[in-house]
Amino acid sequence: MVATEKVLSTPKNLQVLYEDNHLIIVNKRPGDIVQGDKTGDMPLSEVVKEYLKEKYKKPGNVYLGVVID
Predict the structure, then answer these.
(1) Of 3, 11, 17, 30, which one has the fewest beta carbons inside 10 Å?
(2) Is residue 4 part of a domain?
């Protein structure tokens, strides 16, 4: 068995599959968490918010609704 390093999404390496003014679709990596836990890793929704905040220089909080398929 080969050990693999856990790769988490960050605002810099986020895998954006589609993005427009109203919608963003990202790839969830196997190591990404979807809600906070004891590891302290940032949930994917927070990573996406940070990505949007940085890319569009948004002041204040970013609203993000999550749709799961």
Answers:
(1) 3
(2) yes
Q: What is the pTM of this model?
A: 0.86
Higher pLDDT, 6 or 46: 46
Is residue 69 domain-resident? no
Closest CA to 11 of 59, 46, 40, 38: 46
DSSP element (H, E) containing 17: strand 16-19
Other Cβ atoms less than 10 A from the Cβ of 50: the count is 16
Residues 6+ apart with CB under 8 A from 47: 9, 10, 11, 14, 32
